[in-house]
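Q: Can someone sanity-check these two? First one:
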Amino acid sequence: MILGLGIWELVLLGGVFIALFGLGRVPQVARELGRVHGLIQRIRGLLRNPFRLF
């Protein structure tokens, strides 16, 4: 189970994702979600230790 979801819920979410964005845009949307996730992680790290610049 990933994030408390079973295999059928993940398959259903994947189908909805493809239906909303189309098969061609799925990789692009996934890359953007990855970038946003990385940005959020960096911001959280800076907020934990505000005196550390890099």
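And here is the second, same format, sequence then tokens:
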Amino acid sequence: MYAKENLSKISRMAVTVTTTISLLLISTIPSLGADSRPPQCLEVERIEKRKIEVRNKCGRDMSFKISYAFWADSACMTIRKARTEPYTLKKGKRYDGLRVC
């Protein structure tokens, strides 16, 4: 009798712990979509087929990466405030915008 009660308590505790851990893990996953888009003060202009210019009007240094459809994004890069920098896109990959990092 005591064994069944203890087993029942242990099972409920295990479910509670598992649920709590799952919720904590899910809450730490960064959201994709609107939150990863750059602010409007970080402007992009396409100057050639494989070249873009990124203009930082944010008033502070900004970190971003170039996003490609169906391909790995670039490494995280930083552009200083009030600067415009040219970047060359990967050959044969579809440019999909900038993402903050």
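A (reply): Looked at the second one. The chain has two domains: 1-30, 34-100. The CA atoms of residues 68 and 95 lie 5 Å apart.
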